[in-house]
């Protein structure tokens, strides 16, 4: 494969963008990686119309056919892995380890998984019910079956941190269920998604089943989600944008799957294995520079072990080598953009002004180019400070001490978010009990590892609905009840 197409993909055709092109910037070098298409609002609507036109054919295709096509997409993604990884690194600034083990392989795994799920029965049989006669109808045994039907056209709007993985997490289950899609990737790194469209085309995805539109401003995405041809919006991104999209969707009763922001609490109880806790919390620095919605960015630490844990975290941050993502020894790469770095720096300054202490980091490392921020630990943080309430989406951890379990639970639950919290304790029965008090969609006990079979999503402002595993398949379906006399 050569340079990814600089055209949008609509109805199985590569279409010249109405608004020209814009440069995609490598966050490590600040050089232009390539030119991305600037689609117009009308083109976003045309893409939704193309998905609408393809819907009946794809929805009525056999499950075996849909499964084969998804499996083929996964196979071709694997085949082109070595071409994709350098592009992923150039666009996202992901380190070698993250790009090669997480970005492409996880996208492949998602297509393979939903190729399998595509074969699952769409029917849920119910036992016959004995129904008494009413003025409406005579009584008798009444049978019923529940059928899962596709929702229709799904707009898949994705964030910048894992462009392929996020896209695959939406497109694969949506297609498995018989929906058609329009993908609107984030403006910072859309080229790999355009390359994905080439792969889907080669895999034999029928025209209009997958469409991709890109643009540097919100106009493209806004036109897409408002299109009357869109039945469902599957959005991953910030809570602020999710709210705007939700308002638009609400007007037309469009279905929504919303995966939004997080401010994960890692609660370190007095009996915790502190090395394990420090390694878990340190993943905020070591994994994609903290640009992860599930990161344990708030360390809630029992006062009796506070100083010890802070010492371990400072040491951990010292081991996280900041540098060129192409260097295999680099642990912390750049943030996605100058704007994102400015946001992180502004929040940090606000925290210090409010009385927090920088225990480690807090500066730009001595690099000539790139949007880097050092792994940073803030101590002396109070729950009401902005740095304890708002997402950094960068390599920053804040430490909040607590004296007892009730206070820890109150701090953990004391933000608008509820995506992913963590508990570190050697008493797992206690951890399990505390987990039930957390207003969050996911809880990790003594681990930051994910289990991809579990439903993933948020409480409160962290989202609506669940994806991952079989739950993603269900998220892209409507239930239809069919009733008949027995
Ligand atoms: P943004 O919310 O800024 O953007 C996400 C996507 O929405 C982009 O494609 C963006 O493109 C698009 N968008 C923006 N405005 C509109 C609009 N009015 N209508 C339609 N689309 C729009 O998120 P980021 O890309 O900055 O990603 C970081 C955020 O994502 C963090 O808050 C993080 O927590 C969250 N996230 C959540 C995850 C989860 O699973 N819960 C996983 C990963 C990230 P454009 O700006 O060009 O319109």
Protein architecture, described:
This protein is of the alpha/beta class. It is 39% helix and 21% strand. Strands 14-15-16-13-12-17-18 form a 7-stranded mixed sheet, with helices on both faces. The protein has a 6-stranded mixed sheet with strand order 9-8-7-10-11-19, with helices on both faces. The protein has a 3-stranded antiparallel sheet with strand order 5-6-20. α1 crosses α7, α4 packs parallel to α5 and α5 packs across α15. The chain starts with 7 loop residues before the first strand and ends with a strand. It binds NADPH dihydro-nicotinamide-adenine-dinucleotide phosphate. NADPH dihydro-nicotinamide-adenine-dinucleotide phosphate (NDP) binds next to α7 and α8. NADPH dihydro-nicotinamide-adenine-dinucleotide phosphate binds next to α7 and α8.
Task: Provide a short characterization of the protein structure.
This protein has helices at 41-60, 63-79, 81-92, 96-117, 163-176, 191-202, 218-226, 239-251, 274-286, 306-319, 338-353, 386-389, 405-412, 428-435, 469-475; strands at residues 8-10, 13-15, 21-25, 32-37, 123-131, 140-150, 153-157, 180-184, 210-212, 232-236, 255-259, 265-268, 298-302, 357-360, 376-379, 396-402, 420-424, 442-445, 463-464, 477-485. It is an alpha/beta fold.
């Amino acid at each position: 494969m050569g340079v990814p197409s600089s055209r949008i993909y609509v109805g199985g055709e590569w279409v010249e963008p109405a608004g020209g092109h814009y440069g995609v910037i490598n966050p490590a070098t600040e050089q232009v990686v390539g030119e991305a298409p600037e689609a117009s609002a009308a083109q976003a609507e045309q893409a939704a119309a193309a998905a609408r036109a393809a819907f009946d054919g794809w929805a009525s295709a056999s499950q075996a056919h849909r499964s084969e096509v998804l499996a083929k997409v996964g196979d071709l993604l694997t085949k082109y892995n070595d071409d994709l990884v350098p592009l992923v690194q150039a666009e996202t600034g992901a380190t070698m380890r993250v790009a090669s083990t997480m970005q492409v392989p996880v996208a492949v795994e998602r297509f393979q998984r939903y190729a399998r799920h595509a074969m699952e029965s769409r029917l849920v049989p119910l036992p016959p019910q004995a129904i008494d006669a009413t003025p409406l109808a005579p009584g008798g045994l009444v049978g019923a079956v529940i059928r899962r039907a596709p929702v229709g056209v799904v707009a898949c709007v994705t964030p910048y941190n894992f462009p392929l993985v996020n896209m695959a997490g939406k497109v694969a289950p949506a297609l498995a269920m018989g929906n058609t899609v329009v993908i609107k990737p984030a403006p910072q790194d859309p080229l790999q998604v355009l390359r994905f469209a080439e792969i889907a085309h080669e895999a034999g995805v029928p025209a209009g089943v997958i469409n991709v539109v890109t643009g540097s401003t919100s106009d493209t995405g806004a036109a897409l989600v408002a299109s009357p041809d869109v039945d469902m919006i599957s959005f991953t991104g910030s809570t602020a944008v999710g709210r705007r999209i939700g308002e638009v969707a609400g007007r037309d009763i469009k279905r929504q799957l919303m995966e939004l922001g997080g401010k994960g609490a890692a609660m370190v109880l007095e009996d915790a294995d502190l090395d394990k806790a420090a390694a878990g919390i340190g993943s905020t620095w070591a994994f994609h520079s903290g640009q992860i919605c599930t990161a344990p960015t708030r360390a809630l630490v029992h006062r009796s072990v506070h100083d010890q844990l802070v010492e371990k975290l400072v040491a951990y941050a010292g081991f996280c080598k900041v540098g060129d993502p192409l260097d295999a020894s680099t642990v912390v790469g750049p943030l996605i953009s100058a704007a994102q770095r400015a946001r992180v720096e502004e929040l940090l300054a606000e925290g210090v002004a409010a009385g927090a202490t920088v225990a480690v980091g807090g500066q730009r490392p001595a690099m000539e180019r790139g949007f880097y921020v050092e792994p940073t630990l803030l101590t002396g943080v109070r729950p009401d400070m902005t740095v304890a309430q708002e997402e950094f989406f960068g390599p920053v951890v804040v430490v909040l001490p607590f004296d007892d379990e009730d206070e820890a639970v109150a701090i953990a639950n004391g933000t608008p978010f509820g995506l992913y919290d963590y508990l570190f304790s050697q008493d797992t029965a206690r951890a399990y009990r505390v987990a039930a008090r957390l207003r969050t969609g996911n809880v990790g006990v003594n681990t930051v590892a994910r289990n991809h079979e579990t439903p993933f999503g948020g409480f409160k402002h962290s989202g609506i609905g669940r994806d991952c595993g079989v739950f993603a398949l269900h998220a892209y379906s409507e239930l239809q009840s069919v009733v008949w006399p027995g």
